[in-house]
Design brief:
Number of strands of chain A: 0
Helix content of chain B: 40-55%
Structural class of chain B: alpha+beta
Order of helices and strands of chain A: HHHHHHHHHH
Mean pLDDT of chain A: 74
Oligomer: heterodimer
CATH architecture of the largest domain in chain A: Orthogonal Bundle
Helix content of chain A: 55-70%
CATH superfamily of the largest domain in chain A: RNA polymerase sigma factor, region 2, helix turn helix motif
Number of helices of chain B: 29
Shape of chain B: flat
Number of domains of chain A: 2
Number of domains of chain B: 7
Number of helices of chain A: 10
Shape of chain A: globular
Radius of gyration of chain A: 20 Å
Low-confidence stretches of chain B: 1-5, 146-181, 183-197, 205-297, 305-335, 701-706
Strand content of chain B: 15-25%
Distance between the termini of chain A: 14 Å
Strand order of the largest sheet of chain B: 2-3-5-1-4
Radius of gyration of chain B: 64 Å
CATH class of the largest domain in chain A: Mainly Alpha
Low-confidence stretches of chain A: 10-31, 124-140
Mean pLDDT of chain B: 74
Chain lengths: 217, 887
């Protein structure tokens, strides 16, 4: 029991201030942009291919996270990321304002991801829960089973409301603390707690998903 | 779809606890709850497991360190792929989109500005290209540098009173320095783009340092110097009105429009701006940096101003004066020497003797310092010569030479032409110079270039092209040089009386027909006569057609002095008709027969005699008669013996024909002496009834009266077919046609009536008709007609009688003919419209329709079958795919 309690992470009153996280913009969209970054984007939009590479280097992770928060699949998220930048490359002559470029990029990403999810959804709906209650679906043993299990979890995640997914992604993938997530999503602390609690609770209660479910209690 | 998640506030606490976001107070409360409530503990454990799982899953989803690089290369690849895949259609789509967007936009002003900008750039570049073409004249100016100097002096003289002395001085200064400028220009042109841009960069780096400025100024001066020289050249060439224009253009090209590399020239002038502005008068402080060059450029500007002035105000008189001046000085300084003139002359000459004229021409040409290029001659049939000579003569002695040529004979045609190729020549020379410069540049580039192979290849290719054009232009120049060096004279020479014929021949031809009684004998006699006259028989034909119809044709060549005696011999052999004589004069040994003949030269050729010998029976009195007799064979024999008994008569032909129907005809043709023919005619008439007689006499059949003792041709025709005296047509309606017809035939045979023809017909509508033709002597006629009338109802009766003068009305033996049509009425309902016939027809039509429909169904089936099969195959395949996918 004590060991159990000790596992509960200690409360950290101040938000995480690791330099790595600090360098990251607090929100995905309202990124404060310095003039060098703007110049880089402007050059990329004007047709400079090297500058465009730099843009990809700078924004690909953010785009990936947004894509992942919706699609919940790393391979597909990578696909969406590439497509987004391809689209940016095609339409760069139309994008006139560099300061709006990141927002545009993320909007495009989100639309692409939702589009893809919508196309995937009918199948997912048809089989999600049938397959989830498969007998040998749980108790991850072999690597293959583990992978299957993870895929199942991803599908379950994808079936959550988008707000929940985003919050979970920011927490688990990005490793942001609550304050940063609140800023990013524009939520109050209570709302965020509610969202995360509900998301975790839903997942925990989903049949055939929780590894603890079958363990003798 | 999703099960509604019951919201448990404890879930929030668990999440916050797992995420380390509990406040101290919450933490205490949470721990207490865990300690007291096992369900809460289980929930926490479950949540923690889920949390771990999420952590793990997300850790797997974490982008790896290579993520960015992978994204970049992925996007790059996709972009390349897409660019490759871009087709013309896509380009069209993009174009359409941009147009659509343009139309949607409201900032038309911006686009308008862009259009104006583009238009300006395009116009400028066009003007610039035009100036490049003019830049070619810079090289020409080198050739005419000295002429330019002279010209400048002339101009100065002409305008001495109008232009201030200072300007005149300035005018001369740059002109004397012209050669130096040329050198500079060449130096400048030799430098390539790199060198100039390097210089420019250097000057910028050094903040417009003096030294590079001076260098650039030198280059600019070179450029402008060349532009200036081009203007001079233009002024020389152009009319006064064009002069001002050319100078204006010259201003426009100042500093940037020489034929040096364009991008090089531009930066040069830009760099030049501050120290030695081209468009502003130069002032002392800047002049100090590069005094000499600035002085030059100033002088040049003033000179230009002076020229523009003279071109504008006093253009016409000034230029006119200048022109006349230069014309006056042409004898002394010979400015024509610099002009490139190609002179050609053409001459048509008639001479007495071709050979002597040719010798003289050769000698004259050699004396005049020229040579005979080509010559050719040909001899006509009358021994006269004609030909052409091409001479090359020094141009200055051309006019004298032409005068001398006039002494050789009669000049019929002469033309002299001068082709001024000065412009082309110097144009080509300038282009050659440019190409050579380009060649050296390319060679340097080739030496220096150690870049890509494709670039090197391109340079090589360009070098090859340039060398090719250099060779071509060199060849052109050489050709020009040669053409200018020598004038060409082309002489067409012919001897007098070239077309006069040497002699004439008088050719005679006689045509006539000869009528003779013995054609064959006459033919042989004429051949013998031809032999004895040593005449040449060209053709001799004898045609035996039939009986007395014999013709012969002869063509004989007789020597002229024997022709009359030959003809008189031939005339003695028969009667000559249609005599024609044709005489034709022909030129001997070619020549022109239209020329009036010299009688002494005429010779008489052999006379060709062409005659046709025909039998003179054709022209005799002819008597033709036809005699009807019952026994043709006997009558023919009697006629023959009667003819043979007559002295002097000759049987020309006789024939006997018998037809299968039993009719006989005979023909006999006899030539009888005129005295005896009436006796024979009477004998012929006695053979039977004469049905026709004709007598024909050709009184105009030529010389020699056709007296009574002349033979007569007597033609006799014998026939046993006598035309009936009375013809009757009868139509009778009977009940039973067939039976009555049979009965009638028997009755007729019994009555001794001849049945000439009979026919019977039965129609489908029940009509029966029998047609019969009877022939009988008039004695039996009334009784037989009465019998016929009794057969039934007589519907029509026609009787036609032809009385002959030699026949009595009561001649009972005269033949009569009766045509009978025996027929019945047709049935009310025709056989083929009867009940059974109709039933049969209906059944047959039905059967036909049935089979036709079967056939159409078959066609439709054949038409649709493949499609049905295809659809079935498609459906089957689709179903298989569906099943396979479902599995």
């Amino acid at each position: 029991m004590n060991a159990f309690l000790a596992a509960i992470p200690r409360f950290r009153p101040t938000p995480v201030t690791s330099p790595e996280l600090n360098s990251r913009p607090a929100s995905l969209e309202t990124a404060s942009m310095d003039s060098a970054e703007q110049a880089m984007i402007a050059a990329a939009l004007a047709g400079d291919d090297e500058a465009f590479d730099t843009v990809i280097r700078t924004y690909s992770r953010r785009v990936y996270v947004v894509a992942y928060s919706i699609i919940q699949d790393p391979a597909e998220a990578e696909d969406i990321t590439q497509e987004t930048f391809l689209k940016a490359h095609q339409q760069r002559s139309r994008l006139r304002q560099p300061e709006k470029f990141p927002a545009w990029l993320l909007t495009v990403t989100r639309n692409a991801a939702r589009d893809r999810l919508r196309r995937r959804r009918p199948q997912a709906d048809a089989e999600t829960f049938d397959t989830l209650i498969d007998d040998h679906a749980v108790t991850p043993g072999s690597a293959l089973e583990r992978e299957e299990h993870q895929a199942r979890l991803r599908r379950a995640l994808a079936s959550l409301p988008e707000e929940h997914r985003t919050a979970l992604t920011l927490r688990y993938l990005e490793g942001l603390d609550y304050r940063a997530i609140e800023d990013s999503m524009g939520l109050t602390n209570g709302a965020l707690r509610g969202i995360l609690g509900r998301a975790l609770g839903t997942l925990r209660r989903m049949p055939g998903l929780n590894p603890m479910e079958r363990q003798p209690s | 779809m999703k099960p509604p998640s019951p919201h448990d506030p404890f879930d929030d606490l668990i999440a916050a606890a797992l995420h380390g976001e509990l406040t101290p107070a919450e933490r205490v409360q949470f721990e207490n709850q865990l300690n007291t409530d096992p369900a809460a503990r289980a929930a926490y454990q479950e949540a923690q497991a889920m949390h771990d799982l999420l952590d793990k899953t997300h850790a797997n989803a974490q982008p790896d360190p290579n993520f960015e690089q992978r994204m970049i290369s992925g996007v790059r690849r996709k972009i390349e792929y897409q660019q490759k895949g871009e087709t013309a259609w896509e380009s069209a789509l993009v174009l359409w989109r941009s147009i659509a967007r343009f139309l949607r936009r409201r900032q038309l002003l911006e686009y308008g500005m862009a259009c104006v900008l583009i238009f300006t750039v395009a116009t400028t570049s066009l003007i610039y290209t035009g100036n490049r073409v003019k830049g070619v004249f810079t090289t020409i100016s080198r050739q005419l540098a000295y002429a330019d100097a002279i010209d400048g002096e002339n101009l100065a003289d002409a305008n001495a009173k109008r232009i201030p002395a200072k300007v005149l001085e300035d005018l001369k200064a740059p002109l004397s320095a012209n050669e130096e400028k040329q050198k500079l220009a060449r130096l400048d042109a030799a430098k390539d783009v790199d060198a100039l841009t390097a210089l420019k960069k250097e000057s910028e780096d050094k903040q417009m340092a003096v030294a590079p400025d001076a260098q650039l100024a030198v280059q600019a001066a070179g450029n402008t110097g060349r532009a200036f020289a081009a203007r001079d050249e233009l002024r020389q060439e152009a009319a006064p009105q064009q002069l001002a224009q050319a100078q204006n253009q010259g201003y426009a090209t100042d500093g940037s429009a020489a034929d040096g590399p364009a991008p090089a020239a531009k930066p040069a002038s830009v760099a030049l701006m501050p120290p030695a502005s081209v468009s502003m008068p130069v002032n002392a402080p800047t002049a100090a940096t590069a005094p000499m060059i600035v002085a030059k450029s100033q002088a040049r500007q003033e000179l230009e101003a002076a020229r523009a002035y003279s071109g504008d105000s006093g253009a016409a008189p000034a230029a006119g004066g200048m022109k006349s001046d230069s014309a006056a000085s042409s004898t002394a300084a010979s400015p024509d020497a610099s002009r490139k003139l190609i002179r050609n002359a053409q001459l048509d000459l008639e001479v007495k003797s071709y050979q002597s004229a040719m010798d003289q021409i050769t000698a004259m040409t050699r004396n005049a310092g020229g040579y005979v290029d080509t010559s050719s001659s040909q001899k006509g049939g009358n021994g006269k010569l004609q030909g052409s000579v091409v001479l090359k003569i020094l141009p200055e002695s051309l006019d004298n030479f032409l005068l001398k040529l006039r002494d050789l004979g009669l000049v019929q045609n002469q033309s002299v032409s001068t082709d001024d190729v000065t412009r082309d020549y110097f144009d080509t020379q300038a282009r050659l110079e440019n190409s050579r410069r380009m060649e050296t540049q390319l060679q340097e580039l080739l030496k220096r270039e150690n870049g890509k192979v494709s670039d090197l290849l391109q340079v090589e290719r360009e070098l090859g092209r340039v060398r090719g054009s250099i060779e071509e232009m060199q060849g052109q120049l050489k050709l020009y040089d040669f053409q200018v060096q020598y004038a060409t004279i082309t002489i067409q020479m012919r001897e007098k009386d070239l077309n006069k014929a040497a002699a004439y021949l008088l050719r005679e031809q006689d045509d006539f027909s000869l009528f003779a009684t013995d054609v064959e004998g006459t033919f042989q006699k004429i051949r013998q006569a031809a032999d004895s006259f040593k005449a040449q028989v060209l053709a001799a034909n004898l045609d035996h057609n039939s009986g007395s119809d014999v013709t012969a044709e002869l063509t004989v060549m007789v020597v002229p002095d024997q022709i009359e005696s030959f003809l008189s011999d031939v005339r003695g052999l028969g009667r000559v008709a249609n005599f024609t004589r044709q005489t034709q004069r022909v030129a001997k040994d070619g020549g022109d027969s239209d020329q009036p003949a010299d009688e002494t030269l005429t010779e008489k050729d052999k006379v060709q005699v062409h005659l046709i010998i025909r039998s003179d029976d054709e022209s005799r009195k002819q008597v033709t008669l036809t005699v009807v007799t019952s026994a043709v064979d006997d009558a023919l024999d009697q006629a023959k013996s009667a003819a043979l008994a007559q002295a002097g008569a000759a049987i020309l032909s006789s024939s006997l024909n018998k037809t299968p129907e039993g009719q006989s005809t005979g023909q006999l043709s006899v030539r009888v002496p005129g005295q005896a023919y009436s006796t024979l005619l009477a004998a012929f008439r006695a053979l039977g009834r004469t049905s026709s007689f004709s007598l024909q006499r050709n009184d105009d059949s030529g010389p020699g009266a056709n007296g009574d003792d002349e033979p007569v041709i007597l033609s006799l025709s014998l026939t046993d077919d006598d035309a009936p005296l009375q013809q009757t047509e009868l139509s009778v309606r009977a009940d039973d046609v067939n039976d009555e017809a049979q009965q009638l035939k028997k009755d007729a045979v019994a009555a001794g009536v001849e049945i000439k023809a009979s026919s019977f017909a039965h129609q489908p509508d029940g009509t029966e008709a029998a047609e019969m033709t009877f022939r009988l002597p008039m004695a039996k006629y009334p009784a037989f007609v009465d019998m016929l009338k009794k057969l039934g109802k007589v519907e029509s009766l026609t009787v036609r009688r032809e009385d002959r003068p030699d026949q009595t009305r009561t001649d009972d033996t005269a033949p009569a003919e009766i045509s009978l049509l025996l027929h019945n009425e047709r049935d009310i309902v025709a056989e083929d419209n009867g009940l059974w016939a109709t039933l049969r027809q209906t059944f047959g039509d039905g059967a036909n329709a049935l089979f036709a429909s079967v056939r159409i169904i078959g066609v439709i089936a054949a038409f649709l079958a493949p499609w049905v099969v295809m659809l079935l195959v498609l459906a089957w395949t689709g179903r298989r795919i569906y099943i396979w996918r479902k599995r």
